[in-house]
From TrEMBL:
This is ABC transporter substrate-binding protein. It holds the Pfam family SBP_bac_6. SUPFAM superfamilies: Periplasmic binding protein-like II (SSF53850). PROSITE patterns: PROKAR_LIPOPROTEIN. Gene3D superfamilies: Periplasmic binding protein-like II (3.40.190.10). GO terms for molecular function: thiamine binding; thiamine pyrophosphate binding. PANTHER family: ABC TRANSPORTER SUBSTRATE-BINDING PROTEIN, THIAMINE-BINDING PERIPLASMIC PROTEIN-RELATED. InterPro entries: Ferric-bd (IPR026045). CDD domains: PBP2_Fe3_thiamine_like (cd13518). GO terms for biological process: thiamine transport. Residues 1-25 form the signal peptide. GO terms for cellular component: outer membrane-bounded periplasmic space.
Length: 345
């Protein structure tokens, strides 16, 4: 009788132990119930800056941040490949909203708008600051324009419009990144197509390619080339130039008369393993602490309580903004990139 009781007790104990271990393992694997655990953070933005954002979040909140850095198009392709078993939780950055808009119908971004941005209109001052269905929200403002080397170009001689780049005096002195690889350059191409029409747009880029001495794959490379004197003019975002200037390089920036001014967004990854942690990370990016890090890297913060460290603010640049036809972008994003490859590579 005693042996039988011992046997039953042992069986019940073992069963309870197995159930407990299984439950614990499930909690550790998901990390999604309370936001604790690892948060996988996909970003093409400056690796050191993105790492700093992750570290600051870890200081302030539970959970660890695993930063996964790659180019925008590489990350989008990765999320598409992982669609049936998502590995990321948050996707931040891609040279503005266009890659995010193109990704909405791909089923790789989920719906989440932080409380901080819930009262924003979808479009503020002519700039789309969040997705109408909550698929992304802007965390900073990017201005596409011209970096120039102040030792090689006088301020009053620097180009002020996109047509100025075709001036013969800049032949062999301009760099812009490769639209087949760079989200920054894709924005440049799509904008010109929308403003000029496709026939005139392709003619414009045929001339611009002849002006360039290089088309590197990285969106930041033309500005770095300007800082080293390898180019007089480089097409890029504002923060790229001001970051170089802050390092003591001979670089300044021109906001063209009419140019893309857009937010750089963040999205929750659809079906990611730690959605609650991902939401907390997005909240952090819009908080004063997160926005201050972006400002320290010379990005224009979207939170009005954080001061820009560059001469530019949303208020100062909004009059330069062009109207971007987002529906046209969604319909033509991949096609225009492929046509660029066929025409110029």
């Amino acid at each position: 009788m005693m042996k039988r009781s011992f046997s039953i007790f042992t069986s019940v104990f073992l069963m309870m132990s197995i159930l407990l271990l299984t439950a614990c393992a499930g909690d550790q694997d998901s990390g999604g119930g309370d936001g604790k655990g690892e948060i996988t953070f996909y970003s093409p933005e400056t690796p050191d800056m993105t790492k700093e954002l992750g570290q600051k979040f870890e200081e302030l909140h539970d959970g660890s941040v695993n930063v996964q850095y790659a180019g925008t198009n590489v990350l989008v392709n990765r999320m598409m490949a992982e669609k049936d078993n998502p590995q990321g939780d948050v996707w931040y950055g891609g040279g503005g909203i266009l890659p995010f808009e193109a990704a909405v119908d791909k089923g790789i971004v989920g719906k989440y708008i932080p409380d901080f941005a819930k009262d924003w209109d979808t479009v503020e001052d002519g700039i789309k600051v969040k997705h109408e269905d909550g698929k992304y929200v802007g965390v900073e403002v990017f201005v596409l324009g011209f970096a120039y080397n102040t030792d090689l170009v006088k301020a009053d001689e620097a180009p002020k419009t996109w047509d100025d780049l075709l001036d013969p005096k800049w032949k062999g002195k301009i760099q812009f990144s490769n639209p087949a690889a760079s989200g920054t350059a894709t924005l440049m191409v799509l904008n010109q197509m929308m403003q000029r029409g496709e026939a005139e747009g392709w003619d414009y880029f045929k001339k611009l390619v002849d002006q360039a001495n290089s088309m590197p794959d990285s969106g930041s490379a033309p500005t770095k080339a300007v800082s080293m004197g390898e180019a007089h003019i480089g097409v890029g975002f504002d923060f790229m130039a001001y970051e170089q200037k802050a390092k003591g390089e001979s670089v300044d920036f021109v906001v063209p008369d009419k140019t893309p001014i857009l937010v750089n967004p963040v999205s929750i990854v659809e079906g990611g393993p730690n959605p609650e942690g991902g939401k907390k990370l997005i909240d952090f990016l819009l908080s004063k602490e997160g926005q201050q890090i972006l400002a320290n890297w010379y990005h224009i913060p979207i939170n009005p309580d954080v001061e820009s460290k560059t001469p530019l603010t949303l208020e100062k640049v909004k009059s330069h903004a062009v109207d971007l036809d987002i529906d046209w972008v969604n319909e033509n994003y991949d096609r225009v990139r492929n046509e660029w490859k066929e025409k110029f590579q």
